[in-house]
């Protein structure tokens, strides 16, 4: 894979995004044949790849991914139209934020459990939770399935320029400039949410870091950005050894 600033070609993006779907399924993050990942193609983000309607994450291949145009009004009238909620939310995010090149929305069990609490905020109680300090917007305005422009635009605004949106009563959405960085966000956020839920389940008071310590820890994580690339490449290698059909 190229450097973080280098745009990949569509074929490479298709393979990496298909790998992300297969890996997410292997970790149990998807829900039935729902949830959606997207990735912008080209510099302006106007076109993006998205999983087809109701295809299981574990069966997605690079060639299955739809190439959509955010400005195309005919998208939902076509025979192979995407899921309405996916088109609404991902289209809105890609239109509003060019830097959110990769948008991964899923219902991982611990993140979703955390989203169901009255206070779904991720507290800095260890170094993994502290990684996300200051990076998470929280949406408490759940309005049902986002299959219309109103709810989709609201969610896109709620995400704003933050890389993570904790979606109250719903799940989590992460964004980044590259697929490995977005996948690492999702991977570690689910781990962080698991730590939170387990800590809550003890019934004991949480030991929450001070603001300054949490900021310091989050800043220290920036030196490990390239860890995302090493992790994703090794996960892809293991996936390739087991079933290389994701690249087809």
What's the helix-strand series?
A: HEEEHEHHEHEEHHH
DSSP summary, beta strand count: 7
Assembly of the depicted chains: single chain
Strand content: 5-15%
Largest sheet report: 7 strands, mixed
Topology of helices and strands:
Elements: H1 10-26, E1 36-41, E2 47-50, E3 66-69, H2 84-96, E4 102-106, H3 109-115, H4 127-130, E5 136-139, H5 149-159, E6 164-167, E7 171-176, H6 179-201, H7 211-221, H8 227-242
Parallel strand pairs: 5-6
Antiparallel strand pairs: 1-2, 1-4, 2-3, 4-7, 6-7
Helix pairs in contact: 2-5, 3-6, 6-8
List keywords for this structure.
8 helices, 248 residues, alpha+beta, 41% helix, 7-stranded mixed beta sheet, disordered N terminus, 7 strands
Written description of the protein model:
This protein is an alpha+beta fold and about 250 residues long. It has helices at about 10-25, 85-95, 110-115, 125-130, 150-160, 180-200, 210-220, 225-240, and strands spanning about 35-40, 45-50, 65-70, 100-105, 135-140, 165, 170-175. A seven-stranded mixed sheet has the order 3-2-1-4-7-6-5, sandwiched between helices. Strand 6 (about 165) and strand 7 (about 170-175) form a beta hairpin. Helix 6 (about 180-200) packs across helix 8 (about 225-240). The two termini are about 20 Å apart. Residues about 1-5 have low confidence and may be disordered.
């Amino acid at each position: 894979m190229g450097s973080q600033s280098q745009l990949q070609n569509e074929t490479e993006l298709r393979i990496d995004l298909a790998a992300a779907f297969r890996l997410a399924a292997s970790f149990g993050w998807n829900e039935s044949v729902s949830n959606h990942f997207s990735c912008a193609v080209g510099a302006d983000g106007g076109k993006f790849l998205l999983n087809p309607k109701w295809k299981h994450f574990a069966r997605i291949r690079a060639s299955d991914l739809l190439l959509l145009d955010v400005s195309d009004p005919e998208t939902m009238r076509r025979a192979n139209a995407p899921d309405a909620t996916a088109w609404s939310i991902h289209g809105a995010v890609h239109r509003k934020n060019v830097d959110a090149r990769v948008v991964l929305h899923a219902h991982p069990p611990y993140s979703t459990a955390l989203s169901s609490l009255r206070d779904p905020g991720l507290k800095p109680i260890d170094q993994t939770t502290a990684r996300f300090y200051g990076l998470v917007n929280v949406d408490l305005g759940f309005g049902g399935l986002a299959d219309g422009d109103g709810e989709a635009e609201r969610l896109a605004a709620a995400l704003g320029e933050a890389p993570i949106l904790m979606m109250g009563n719903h799940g989590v959405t992460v964004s980044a400039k590259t697929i490995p960085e977005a996948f690492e966000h999702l991977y570690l956020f689910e781990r962080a949410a698991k730590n939170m839920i387990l800590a809550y389940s003890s019934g004991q008071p949480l030991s929450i870091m001070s603001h300054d310590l949490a900021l310091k820890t989050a800043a220290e994580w920036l030196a490990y950005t390239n860890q995302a690339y090493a992790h994703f490449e090794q996960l892809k290698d293991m996936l390739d050894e087991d079933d290389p059909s994701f690249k087809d």
